[in-house]
């Protein structure tokens, strides 16, 4: 029994890891391809049909490039930086519920690596650690641009974590649980109790302001445009990874894409119903096998993740980068007060509608 | 001072309204613009596979023409070399031997005829100077190469193939 | 020895070892990194006690926010062996005295408290968010609110300090 569980979890972890790596790998292509589409170009299309072999070519290129260790760098920390970035990016997918349980006879396979009851806080913890990869790597390169990028990364991530946490508190008041699976299952009900909206009771309709704040903070935490000041090339060469070459650079870039994937999964699970989709009740009532619904739910979840990944790219090629003081003003002067007001209003509304006593 | 054209517009800088200060409408406007471009027909022409049509007066690589019977028109008069502002053309004249009437139209012909494509500015003066209508700039764009020698085009590259006419 | 016990001893060893290195490391950046490692081992210990909430909050608050600021400041100050002034004997002496007093206070308070109550956890699920919230908001409501007012005043103070003089 014990060993069967361990094997099951091991396979699940491997699958999740491989999926997030492959998604990250192909996000590099999608990013460049869509960048082209947004600018009326075609994007990379020489390596294989539609350029689908481009990520492999990039991988080979990064692996075979020369490894450069700056002479005055702190060797151990210099290598530890990208490794830490990669590590923190990959471990946060552990608490994401990818789908309902698969049932084979009397064997139940959970499509979630672990359902700890502080799942959401775990994600926050991992996100807050993500900045260490950049800080350590940037500081260890002994380069002023890297240090500037590092400092920007650290202060940006701390500032936006606060607004992010505040936004999530309002969400938690609605859901009443910190477990990721609990939050997703809570969204399976109807929307405002309306008929025919089963599976559409998504938190985004109950907490739109929290969703907006979370979305903005998500961009900031992933260091994506318009908040990509840590690697702002017009001011800082390449920011914290200026001195990193070869696959060490590759790890930093890869970690960014994995972060994008994971945060898309998290925001879909928190606000967009995760694996719930409209019409699932009707399918259950029609007697469709539960495994089929699970697979459909998984597809719905990945569709939502795909939309947010697309949104990341979409925003990147639309909105220009913030100036540093604008970034800080947005974080502290607008998002934090807005989030606090949202908590207050949520509390009042919940009290008036009798959800709390 | 009175303006010269009366087309001057005074730009007024009003303080932003609350909706403008929220920036969200502007952001969505921007997002729709980029999304429109996402689905637009792409402007890219995939060059080596697909080529754009040249304009009618495009001047490309020179070609030395033949007449209706397949004889070289060039008589090595040197007017093209003389008119060339870039001094890209050199030639060596030779006299036609008996029995070569099928090859060269005139009694004098160019034994070697070389154009340096690195010097050539594709002005078309040679074309206009030629009294025999022997040279035309009706070819393609000269291809790239790693060596300078490859840009000196001899008769082997310039003269029209015989089967063409 | 069970898995839990061996994990406990491993984490305890790493915690003590890395906290010693915090003091002994020459490079202040390394000190901070060892301190972060210490926090991680402490989180491991909390999780062994089934105190998930405290464990995760320890990571978020200490490792994720406070230590980032520490690292931040130390990186900006660019402290290293050359620039750091040599400590005089007087400062060393004062340090030993204060440290020793701290040790005495700690041992005294440990001795005064009832040791058997420290080890035994009455309720295994005590550390879960639900139970913790109930305890905080029912049994310890007044101290909890006073602490939050303390934090609020600290925040207001920080904002006042950081504000630009308008004159």
UniProtKB/TrEMBL annotation, chain A:
GO CC, one annotated term: plasma membrane
An annotated Gene Ontology molecular function: NADH dehydrogenase activity
UniProt keyword terms in alphabetical order: Cell membrane, Membrane, NAD, Oxidoreductase, Quinone, Translocase, Transmembrane, Transmembrane helix, Ubiquinone
Catalytic reactions of this protein: a quinone + NADH + 5 H(+)(in) = a quinol + NAD(+) + 4 H(+)(out)
PROSITE patterns to which the protein is assigned, alphabetical: COMPLEX1_ND1_1, COMPLEX1_ND1_2
Pfam families for the chain: NADHdh (PF00146)
Entry membrane topology: Multi-pass membrane protein
Source organism superkingdom: Bacteria
InterPro entries in UniProt: NADH_UbQ_OxRdtase_su1/FPO, NADH_UbQ_OxRdtase_su1_CS
Keyword Membrane carried by entry: yes
UniProt keyword Membrane present: yes
Transmembrane segments: 6-29, 76-99, 119-141, 162-184, 204-220, 249-272, 292-315, 335-354
BP term (GO), one: aerobic respiration
Enzyme's top EC category: translocase
Enzyme Commission (EC) number: 7.1.1.-
Location(s), subcellular: Cell membrane; Membrane
Family: Belongs to the complex I subunit 1 family.
Oligomer status and interactors: NDH-1 is composed of 14 different subunits. Subunits NuoA, H, J, K, L, M, N constitute the membrane sector of the complex.
General function of this protein: NDH-1 shuttles electrons from NADH, via FMN and iron-sulfur (Fe-S) centers, to quinones in the respiratory chain. The immediate electron acceptor for the enzyme in this species is believed to be ubiquinone. Couples the redox reaction to proton translocation (for every two electrons transferred, four hydrogen ions are translocated across the cytoplasmic membrane), and thus conserves the redox energy in a proton gradient. This subunit may bind ubiquinone.
Protein name per UniProt: NADH-quinone oxidoreductase subunit H
Source organism of the structure: Solitalea agri
Species lineage: Bacteria, Pseudomonadati, Bacteroidota, Sphingobacteriia, Sphingobacteriales
TrEMBL record, chain B:
Cofactor: binding comment: Binds 2 [4Fe-4S] clusters per subunit.
Cofactor(s) for this UniProt protein: [4Fe-4S] cluster
Binding of [4Fe-4S] cluster 1, residues: 74, 77, 80, 130
A GO MF term: quinone binding
The 4Fe-4S ferredoxin-type domain, residue ranges: 65-94, 111-140
UniProt enzyme class: translocase
GO cellular component: plasma membrane
One Gene Ontology term from the biological process aspect of the record: aerobic respiration
Recorded catalytic activity of this chain's protein: a quinone + NADH + 5 H(+)(in) = a quinol + NAD(+) + 4 H(+)(out)
Coiled-coil regions, chain positions: none
E.C. number: 7.1.1.-
Subcellular location: Cell membrane
Subunit record text: NDH-1 is composed of 14 different subunits. Subunits NuoA, H, J, K, L, M, N constitute the membrane sector of the complex.
Family of the protein in this entry: Belongs to the complex I 23 kDa subunit family.
Name of the protein in question: NADH-quinone oxidoreductase subunit I
UniProt source species: Solitalea agri
TrEMBL record, chain C:
Enzyme class: translocase
GO cellular component terms, semicolon-separated: plasma membrane
Catalytic activity: a quinone + NADH + 5 H(+)(in) = a quinol + NAD(+) + 4 H(+)(out)
Keywords, sorted A to Z: Cell membrane, Membrane, NAD, Quinone, Transmembrane, Transmembrane helix
EC number, as in UniProt: 7.1.1.-
Ranges that cross the membrane: 6-25, 32-49, 55-78, 90-110, 140-162
Pfam families membership: Oxidored_q3
InterPro entries in alphabetical order: NADH_UbQ/plastoQ_OxRdtase_su6, Nuo/plastoQ_OxRdtase_6_NuoJ
Localization: Cell membrane
Gene3D superfamilies found in the cross-reference section: NADH-ubiquinone/plastoquinone oxidoreductase chain 6, subunit NuoJ
Membrane topology designation: Multi-pass membrane protein
Database matches in PANTHER family: NADH-UBIQUINONE OXIDOREDUCTASE CHAIN 6
Function noted in UniProt: NDH-1 shuttles electrons from NADH, via FMN and iron-sulfur (Fe-S) centers, to quinones in the respiratory chain. Couples the redox reaction to proton translocation (for every two electrons transferred, four hydrogen ions are translocated across the cytoplasmic membrane), and thus conserves the redox energy in a proton gradient.
Assigned protein family: Belongs to the complex I subunit 6 family.
Name assigned to this protein: NADH-quinone oxidoreductase subunit J
Native source species: Solitalea agri
């Amino acid at each position: 029994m014990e060993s069967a569980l361990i094997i099951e979890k091991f396979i699940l972890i491997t699958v999740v890891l491989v999926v997030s790596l492959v998604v990250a790998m192909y996000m590099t292509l999608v990013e460049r391809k869509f960048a082209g589409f947004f600018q009326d170009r075609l994007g990379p299309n020489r390596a294989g049909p539609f350029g689908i072999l481009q990520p492999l070519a990039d991988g080979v290129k990064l692996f075979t490039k020369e490894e450069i260790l700056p002479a005055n760098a702190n060797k151990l920390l210099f290598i530890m930086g990208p490794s830490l970035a990669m590590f923190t990016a990959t471990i946060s997918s552990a608490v994401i519920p990818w789908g309902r349980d698969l049932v084979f006879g009397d064997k139940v396979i959970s499509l979630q690596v672990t359902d700890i009851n502080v799942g959401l806080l775990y994600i926050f913890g991992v996100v807050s650690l993500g900045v260490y990869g950049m800080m350590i790597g940037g500081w260890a390169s002994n380069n002023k641009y890297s240090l500037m990028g590092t400092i920007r990364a650290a202060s940006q991530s701390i500032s936006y974590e606060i607004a992010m946490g505040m936004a999530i508190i309002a969400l938690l008041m609605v859901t009443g649980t910190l477990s990721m699976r609990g939050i997703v299952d809570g969204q399976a009900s109807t929307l405002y109790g309306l008929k025919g909206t089963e599976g559409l009771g998504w938190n985004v309709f109950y907490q739109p302001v929290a969703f907006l704040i979370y979305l903005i903070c998500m961009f900031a935490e992933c260091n994506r445009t318009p908040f990509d000041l840590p690697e702002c090339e017009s001011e800082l060469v390449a920011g914290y990874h200026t001195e990193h070459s070869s696959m060490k650079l590759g790890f930093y870039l890869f970690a960014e894409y994995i972060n994008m994937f994971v945060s898309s999964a998290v925001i879909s699970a928190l606000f967009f119903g995760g694996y719930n989709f409209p019409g699932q009740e009707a399918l259950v009532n029609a007697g469709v096998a539960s495994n089929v619904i699970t697979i459909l739910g998984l597809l719905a979840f990945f569709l939502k993740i795909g939309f947010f990944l697309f949104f990341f790219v979409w925003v990147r090629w639309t909105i220009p980068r913030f100036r540093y003081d604008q970034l800080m003003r947005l974080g502290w002067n607008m998002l934090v007060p807005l989030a606090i007001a949202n908590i207050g209003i949520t509390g009042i509304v919940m009290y008036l509608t009798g959800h709390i006593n | 001072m009175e303006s010269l054209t009366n087309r001057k517009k005074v730009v007024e800088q009003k303080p932003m309204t609350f909706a403008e200060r929220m920036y969200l409408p502007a952001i969505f406007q921007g997002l729709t613009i980029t999304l429109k471009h996402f689905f637009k027909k792409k402007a890219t022409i995939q060059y080596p596979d697909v080529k754009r049509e040249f304009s009618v007066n495009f001047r490309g690589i020179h070609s030395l023409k033949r007449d209706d019977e397949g004889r070289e028109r060039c008589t090595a008069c040197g007017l093209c070399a003389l008119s060339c502002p870039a001094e890209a053309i050199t030639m060596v004249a030779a006299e036609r031997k008996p029995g070569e009437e099928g090859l060269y139209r005139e009694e004098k012909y160019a034994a070697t005829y070389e154009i340096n494509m690195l010097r050539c500015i594709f002005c078309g003066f040679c074309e206009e100077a030629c009294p025999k209508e022997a040279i035309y700039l009706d070819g393609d764009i000269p291809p790239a190469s790693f060596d300078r020698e490859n840009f000196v085009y001899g008769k082997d590259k310039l003269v029209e193939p015989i089967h063409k006419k | 020895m069970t898995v839990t016990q061996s994990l406990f001893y491993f984490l305890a060893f790493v915690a003590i070892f890395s906290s010693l290195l915090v003091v002994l490391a020459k490079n202040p950046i390394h000190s901070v990194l060892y301190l972060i490692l210490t926090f991680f081992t402490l989180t491991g210990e909390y999780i062994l006690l089934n105190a998930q909430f405290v464990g995760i909050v320890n990571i978020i608050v200490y490792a994720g926010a406070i230590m980032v600021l520490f690292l931040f400041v130390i990186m900006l100050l660019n402290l290293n062996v050359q620039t750091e002034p040599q400590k005089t004997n007087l400062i060393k002496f004062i340090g030993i005295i204060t440290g020793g007093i701290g040790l005495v206070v700690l041992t005294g308070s440990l001795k005064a408290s009832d040791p058997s109550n420290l080890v035994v956890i009455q309720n295994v699920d005590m550390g879960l968010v639900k139970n913790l919230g109930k305890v905080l908001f029912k049994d310890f409501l007044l101290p909890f609110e006073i602490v939050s007012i303390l934090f609020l005043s600290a925040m207001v103070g920080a904002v006042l300090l950081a504000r630009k003089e308008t004159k």
